[in-house]
Model the fold of this input.
Amino acid sequence: MRKQTNKMAADALSDRLANKLNLQTKTVGEERIKRAKAKDEDVAMLTMFPMESDPKFRCCLGNDCFLGDPKKADPGTKKMEYKTRQWHEKCFCCVVCKNPIGTKSFIPREQEIYCAGCYEDKFATRCVKCNKIITSGGVTYKNEPWHRECFTCSNCSTSLAGQRFTSRDEKPYCADCFGELFAKRCTACTKPITGIGGTRFISFEDRHWHNDCFICAGCKTSLVGRGFITDADDVICPECAKQKLM
Done:
């Protein structure tokens, strides 16, 4: 019987997200900002403008600057620096909810800044069953992500994470349920013939046997690989057939 057993892969689906959440803002002085730039540190720096205006400052929001002037650098105004870009403090905000990042965690993606909540809503991996975010290792089945606890047998709801399973009609089943629901049954012992684990079986007309169950009804010797004769509902070896005719 052709096996339909599928393989699962446990993936760290959100490790990169967890790493990105370590990005923080820090309130520091100008010297600290210079050292951060020199080391290309992945941290945003919040600082105060000097009393005099900074002629080099340009809020990177440009015409979308929340203060209306990307060059505005009034005394006491705070600015944010991240990598090679600068913002007014109010302009350093999440591209989705528009709330200022302040001293909270943030996640950069390409040229945009996201707060942790909006990034998760937009990009984080979600379980196809419960639609909740997968924050730690999950299961991938048919290229779709699942929580390990959500990936269960379609019949008995037993967890299939790390277990062998078989699918039917795109639905996963544990070996026991698949056998009970769909597998052929052995004529001799009536138990399912699942084929999982390499089980071999014999078929004749519309009847099936496990290899170990395919034995002569008379002498009980195995008939696998041997000739046999049907006797009503029984199968018997040629020797026992001769004895019955004598």
Summary: The radius of gyration is 34 Å. Helices lie at 15-20, 30-39, 116-123, 175-181, 238-245. The first strand starts at residue 5 and ends at 6.
